[in-house]
Design brief:
Radius of gyration: 39 Å
Largest sheet: 12 strands, antiparallel, barrel
Oligomer: single chain
Strand order of the largest sheet: 2-3-4-5-6-7-8-9-10-11-12-13
Number of domains: 2
CATH topology of the largest domain: Outer membrane phospholipase (ompla), Chain C
CATH superfamily of the largest domain: Phospholipase A1
Structural class: alpha+beta
Order of helices and strands: HHHHHEEEEEEEEHEEEEE
Length: 347
């Protein structure tokens, strides 16, 4: 018979453990203890000793409940909840980033005035003789129905101007074109395009007057011209201060302006303030689906209605009555009605 020799130290340890254990635990055979000592892995060997000695085994930690595939992790839910809902921001705050939740940083293209396309726009009295009175005024044979397109954007160039947290510097640009799209007799030309670059220092305010909350003062400088020459050239430069107010779903913008004077030899339209006046007022009202706008100016009124069509696409209806729908028409009185689409809100 082959005799297996075990190290004396291991046998001595087992004997000491056997004597030290209570009677109820010495019931385990020496073979059980020796079997544990033969296990090489420390963790498994200790687990074996615990089992032989009768020590209670720790219960494994319960596994977390399986996440529902339709529910996002809690961290994602918290992140979504922290993002501001644009619908909770007011019109002026969305447009000029007046609240911290509305800020989007500098050098980002944003809508300025309304961006729209009116494929059908009818006039009761097209301006067929836009030349200055000292020249012959041939009839241009304009169609009463044309197309109008406006593209307008702005960029925030600087936040916290002069170290003042409530002052931001913006630059804007607007181009409005009137297109005789259906007039084949004169090769369907663009009748007029007005260009309007401007710079704006927007000051955030917070005060109340007559139940309205004063949200901003916009100090601006604007140039507007039609880029044409000689008798058809129209242009003017203005400085303005625009005051923005809100009350529930109603927004008011009051903008007085000052026309910068030009020399008589360079002024293409010296009487333009007689028709366009010294300022304008805009009112914008939102309900759950539509937006209604009213623009008042000396000798002119414009009404607008935006309503949802599909996704971000909105329908747009516009009515104008008075002088100055475009620069070439600043001294021409007419009524127009247009219908089309808009892609962004504006003011």
């Amino acid at each position: 018979m082959k005799i297996v020799q075990r190290p004396l130290g291991g046998a001595l340890l087992l004997a000491l453990l056997s004597m030290a254990l209570p009677g109820s635990l010495r019931a385990a055979s020496m073979a059980d203890w020796e079997g544990c000592s033969a296990i090489a892995a420390d963790v498994d060997r200790l687990a074996c000793y615990d089992k032989v000695s009768g020590r209670a085994q720790p219960e494994p930690a319960p596994l977390p409940p399986a996440a529902d595939a339709g529910e996002p992790p809690a961290a994602q839910v918290a992140a979504v909840a922290a993002e501001p809902d644009p619908k909770l921001l007011s019109t002026l705050s969305r447009h000029w980033e007046l609240d911290d939740e509305a800020k989007q940083g500098a050098f980002l293209f944003r809508p300025h005035h309304l961006n729209y396309l009116l494929p059908l726009k009818a006039s009761n009295q097209p301006n067929n003789t836009p030349f200055q009175g000292s020249l012959i005024q041939p009839d241009q044979n304009l169609d009463p129905v044309e197309t109008e397109l406006q593209l307008s954007f702005k960029i925030k160039a600087m936040e916290g101007v002069f170290g003042y947290d409530n002052a931001d510097l913006w630059f804007g640009y607007t181009a409005t074109s009137f297109w005789q799209a259906y007039n084949d007799d004169i090769s369907s030309p663009f009748r007029e395009t007005d260009y309007e670059p401007e710079a704006m220092l927007v000051l955030r305010t917070d005060y109340e007057i007559a139940g309205f909350r004063g949200r901003l003062i916009n100090l601006g400088a604007v140039h507007q011209s039609n880029g044409r020459s000689e008798a058809l050239s129209r242009s003017w430069n203005r400085l303005y201060a625009q005051f923005g107010f809100e009350r529930d779903n109603l927004t008011l913008l009051i903008r007085p302006w000052y026309r910068l004077p030009e020399s008589d030899s360079e002024d293409d339209n010296p009487d333009i303030v007689d028709y366009m006046g010294y300022g304008d007022l805009m009112a914008i009202y939102h309900d759950e689906r539509s937006t209604y706008s009213l623009l008042l100016r000396k000798k002119a009124v414009e009404l607008g209605w935006n309503f949802p069509l599909y996704g971000r696409l909105k329908g747009y209806v516009q009515y104008f009555n008075g002088y100055g729908e475009s620069l070439i028409d600043y001294n021409h009185n007419q009524q127009t009605f247009g219908i089309g689409i808009s892609l962004t809100e504006g003011m």
